[in-house]
């Protein structure tokens, strides 16, 4: 069986001030951002990349205001989308986190059989003496069982066959990472996480001011661009709703 990549719609972020995220936005610009998780079905196991916004928010049709200018909404739960493709939470062997922000770890406690992979730099920031210095809030990942965490240091080939490879892309947070998935029919896709919030910022190398390390962030955009150029990979930005609209979500898949 070939590797399959399912795109899961794990919420929406309404931002009343998109300039918080994108240096090319006008102050006070209203924008909706997509949130995604991805299920990779490999012959040797299932990998879930990020766990989205907390499914519990789906009970609130107006969403939940989490800050003055930010509302989270969950029109469809992660659990229901997995069920639709016949996947139970206990089928997922590995959860991999791009980083520890609240919109990426929402349902991280849902997978009882999974180990949880992250970069060591993210782990040390998130569980060190001052996570807030790195824009991390331990309440966001309180449901994560620390005993299940496994860390990696730098790029890491999950199955040893080059099909699913973690790519370190730090700067947004200390251990922010992407995932390169090589598919037989669809070619290579780089799940680039939060390296940039719009295709324009990505193309221009424009870095969000609130990132933890701006120089690293710039280098990570360049690293993603190199992967795009050298491997002919398609780059998917997590929160770019305009770009995500044309990407097929589950139950469709890419293989
Ligand atoms: Zn994010």
Q: Name the overall outline.
A: globular
Mean pLDDT: 97
Helix segment tally: 5
Q: What radius of gyration results from the CA coordinates? A: 17 Å
Query: How big a fraction of the residues is strand?
Result: 25-35%
What is the number of strand segments? 13
Task: List each distinct ligand once.
Answer: zinc ion
What number of domains?
1
- The amount of helix comes to 10-25%
Could you explain the architecture of this structure?
The chain has 255 residues and is of the alpha/beta class. It has one domain (4-244): 4-Layer Sandwich (Metallo-beta-lactamase, Chain A). The chain has five helices and 13 strands. It has helices spanning 78-84, 120-126, 199-204, 214-231, 241-244, and strands at 4-15, 31-42, 45-49, 64-67, 70-73, 94-96, 115-119, 149-152, 156-157, 164-168, 177-183, 187-191, 234-236. The strands form two sheets. It has an eight-stranded mixed beta sheet with strand order 4-5-1-2-3-6-7-8. A five-stranded mixed beta sheet has the order 9-10-11-12-13, covered by helices on one side. The longest helix is centred in the C-terminal third of the chain and has 18 residues, at 214-231. The protein is globular and about 50 Å long. Bound molecules: zinc ion (ZN). The site of zinc ion has 6 residues, from loops. The site of zinc ion (ZN) has 6 residues, from loops.
